[in-house]
Design a protein that fits this description.
- The structure is a single chain.
- By secondary structure, this protein is of the alpha+beta class.
- Helices cover 30% and strands 18% of the residues.
- It has one domain.
- The chain has a 3-stranded antiparallel β-sheet. Strands 3-4-7 form a 3-stranded antiparallel β-sheet, with no helix packed on it. It has a two-stranded antiparallel ribbon with strand order 1-8.
- Strand 5 and strand 6 form a beta hairpin.
- Helix 2 packs antiparallel against helix 3 and helix 3 runs antiparallel to helix 4.
């Protein structure tokens, strides 16, 4: 993959947020495999910063919320830094591990509001994103203590990341495919 050919774009997707507060998230399943890619330039010019990855195929999870079946699909082309873990905390929680897939869905829910006309960064959507990540980690057999630590850390410190507008959220190659 030649990252110089990649251009920012906004994919089309439905509203991933539930719209109203609800019950617990149950029956969580990973419906499709997660496919990530990273530009070769990222390997060649490591300058101490973490390289970004790109979701290379749509990635879908399913669950029940408010007694209804729901799904969230992370669009192809979404840019991610994997699990956003400060370097000091990486002794306890790495950027990759059984929590990675949950972190990718969480990343999408933290940026999706920016691409929905008239939506905005709503506190109830952030809370839903954090709760969905916790359910996803449980489904991936992340240990109870680590799951709790990640969830509480995101609840305490994630507000700034959620409300911040990201200029480049999705990319595709300039020929039209992601």
């Amino acid at each position: 993959m030649d990252c110089r050919k990649y251009e920012p774009y906004i994919p089309e997707f439905g509203n991933p947020y539930p719209g109203r507060p609800g019950s617990d998230i149950t029956g969580f399943v990973y419906h499709t495999p997660l496919h990530l890619c990273r530009c070769i330039e990222a390997v060649q010019r490591r300058e101490g910063a973490d390289a970004d990855y790109i979701v290379s195929r749509p990635y879908t999870v399913r669950f029940r919320y408010n007694d209804a079946g729901r799904e969230v699909t992370v669009p192809e082309g979404m840019v991610t830094d994997l699990a956003s873990v400060p370097w000091l905390a990486r002794i306890i929680v790495g950027r990759v591990g059984p929590h990675l897939e949950a972190a990718i869905v969480h990343d999408f829910l933290y940026i999706a509001w920016q691409d929905m006309a008239g939506h905005g960064a709503r506190p109830e959507d952030r809370k839903f994103a954090d709760r969905l990540m916790r359910a996803a980690m449980a489904a991936a057999d992340v240990g109870v203590l680590k799951r709790w630590l990640i969830y509480v850390t995101v609840r305490i410190f994630g507000g700034g990341a959620y409300a911040r507008r990201d200029p480049i959220r999705y990319v595709r190659d300039d020929s039209g495919g992601a």
